[in-house]
TrEMBL record:
Protein name: Glutamate--cysteine ligase
Top-tier EC class: ligase
Keywords: ATP-binding, Glutathione biosynthesis, Ligase, Nucleotide-binding
Annotated NCBIfam families: glu_cys_ligase
Signal peptide, first to last residue: none
The EC number(s) this enzyme carries: 6.3.2.2
Keyword Iron-sulfur attached: no
Amino acid sequence: MSDLLSRRLALLGERANLSLLSQCLHGIERECLRVDSDGQLALTPHPVTLGSALTHPQITTDYSEALLEFITPAEADAAVTLADLEDIHRYAYSKLDGEYLWSPSMPCALPDEETIPIARYGDSHIGRLKYVYRKGLALRYGKTMQCIAGIHYNFSLPESLWTLLQQAEGDNRSARDYQSARYIGLIRNFRRYSWLLMYLFGASPALDVGFMRGRPHQLEQLDPQTLYLPYATSLRMSDLGYQSNAQAGLTPCYNDLASYTDSLRQAVATPYPAYVEAGTQKDGEWQQLNTNILQIENEYYSNIRPKRVTASGERPIQALMARGVQYVEVRCLDINPFLPLGIDLDEARFLDAFLLFCALQASPLLESDECHACTDNFLAVVKEGRRPGLQLQRQGQAVGLQAWAEELLENIRPLAELLDRSQGGDAHLQALQAQRAKVADAALTPSAQVLAQLQQGESFTQFALRQSKQHAEYFRRQPLDAERQAAFEAAAARSLRDQAELEAQEEGDFDSFAAAYQASILALAV
């Protein structure tokens, strides 16, 4: 453990400061496909009984009309966050008529690309803009890749904790700049160590054969319907033959907030030849929002993002530039198909200790060589993380995954202990012990457990559908109480009214609205 980390832990462990760690906030966004009883992609519209995907704060859609997204509020206790997520699932299942929520990250057997429905958000200008953005994603990357689902874990430390550390360290930057710099430091450490999350929680070692659409690949055949890699942890996070040439040159630097926002500002304003050739409109129909490397900043695919809650009409980059980083969004987590929510408290509590370690541990700037090593380590683990004797790169030297993982977990242990002292009990230490067991025995990892099921004779799709139906039974067995159900019904009705109001008040034409939106992107790049 570094001296800096020891000093910070000692400060936070003082009686007067210990309660700060119980004020960290957690939020979860869980994506999942709607499927029919045969495990085929649901081609039905987003159920109106779930409310408006445009205006409902907790139940929306991501890329496809069939790709639901459930969003919890930010809570101080991860157990409350998961309870919120469970309530959303229970409400959704009270409204899904003969449909199921697909249990893993990798999609069900998909129809041809043309048939996959893009999410619709109504006739308001902003609703149409969201639809055109998704048409652009289809044009640029294909619809198949957009049907992959994941879990996003949002995490923040209280501002008073940053203030305490800043004062103790005699840092004379503004509070906003110090906090932003420390979150960016967290992100650099996340880049260094996130391969560990892929080993521990990766749960997508196999996929439906149709996903590859007949393209060349290096996957192996497990059965006529299933492709896999024997030591993979998370094919979802591998390249799978999908290379975004436009984004290939875009590697935002996480050495400070300004360089990160500058690289994204440049990408949303720089034309990309293939997209220019496709154009924004064809036969009077919008094809994409613009012909730049990124249509909007959220198009950039990353494993973690610095975030700030946006005001109405404000762009994510504008919020970061104006008010700094408020929290991080971890985006590389697979859905665990054995868990009804796709995540459990053990995982959430370990993530808290891991992210706290990333935040408090010294975080030197990433030089080019280390930056490449971070990427290489991550890709090695997603493709063959369970391979016995797998070697990773650390400071130019080869190091065994198992040895490094054990060392990291030992370094994270004081963080888990501090969280337990702050909150009472030993839940974080228990969560850490569960991860130690996986490092000692790769057969305990979710990816190994998925393959163990498939090797008993089930195809990927048969396994996933069986799990989906088990989870449906779990949620339907314990419906929401009348009061919670009524609250969800009211929220759904309110969201539909909000959308109708938005559409009724709309002024001007969509082309002018889209042009103004594009101008706001270009203004960022000045």
